């Protein structure tokens, strides 16, 4: 009986660290059974001390002790059987998981070796599509950059033209302030003189308004007509 107890204790100690909950439960059950057995043994020894020793009572005491030990051993065996079933279930689950992982590993190895032709063709097609899209985007980018450069040059040209127009307008305002309307004739004469000279074939720098020129021409015609007409007083005196 002692060898069975020691074997059960060894199994309980070994399984306690491995199985966790079931090991603790087996240890608690063992302690409870040992406490009951020890308490009954103490009571029987105390009764034996109070009563005179008898061979029949000694035999009964031994039978009771053997019965308690057998019951404790049976309880331990039941606990060990339950733990064994749990361990078997865990082992079966671990084997199934290992088999699944081995199959996945095999598939990954086959994929790395290039045995899966369908996946290789799909990957190749995707790469070709990506390369074609990359080339198309590069051409579009080049075209857009060229158009952007042309537009920038046009904008710069218009900015320079607007600056020239602003400078010309400011120059005309300054000329109008420096040379009033009654001096416009002198400016027109200077422009005609410069145009008649061999070096003055170009346009005048600051053009004179057309209305001012027409008014000055009209005034010149009136003055010349007055100078060419004979005086009336001399005509009457001759007659």
TrEMBL record:
Coiled coil regions in record: 77-147
Highest taxon in the source lineage: Eukaryota
Keywords per UniProt: Coiled coil
Start and end residues of each stretch annotated as Disordered: 190-239
Compositionally biased intervals (Basic and acidic residues): 215-224
PANTHER family per record: HEAT-INDUCIBLE TRANSCRIPTION REPRESSOR-RELATED, OS04G0228100 PROTEIN
Protein name listed in UniProt: Uncharacterized protein
Originating species: Lupinus angustifolius (Narrow-leaved blue lupine)
């Amino acid at each position: 009986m002692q060898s069975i107890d020691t074997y059960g204790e060894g199994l309980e100690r070994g399984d306690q660290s491995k199985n966790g909950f079931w090991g603790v439960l087996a240890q608690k059950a063992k302690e409870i059974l040992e406490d009951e057995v020890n308490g009954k043994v103490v009571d029987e020894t105390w009764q034996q001390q109070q009563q005179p020793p008898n061979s029949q009572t000694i035999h009964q005491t031994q039978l009771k002790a053997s019965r308690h030990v057998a019951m404790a051993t049976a309880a331990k065996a039941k606990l060990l059987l339950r733990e064994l079933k749990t361990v078997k279930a865990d082992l079966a689950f671990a084997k199934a998981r290992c088999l699944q992982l081995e199959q996945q590993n095999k598939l990954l190895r086959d994929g790395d070796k290039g045995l899966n032709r369908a996946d290789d063709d799909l990957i190749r097609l995707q790469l070709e599509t990506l390369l074609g899209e990359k080339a198309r985007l590069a051409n579009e980018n080049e075209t857009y950059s060229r158009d952007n450069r042309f537009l920038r040059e046009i904008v710069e040209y218009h900015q320079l033209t607007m600056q020239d127009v602003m400078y010309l307008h400011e120059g005309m305002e300054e000329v109008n302030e420096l040379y009033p309307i009654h001096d416009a004739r002198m400016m027109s004469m200077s422009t005609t003189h410069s145009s008649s000279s061999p070096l003055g074939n170009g346009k005048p720098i600051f053009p004179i308004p057309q209305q001012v020129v027409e008014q000055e021409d009209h005034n010149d015609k009136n003055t010349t007509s007055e100078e060419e007409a004979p005086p009336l007083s001399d005509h009457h005196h001759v007659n």
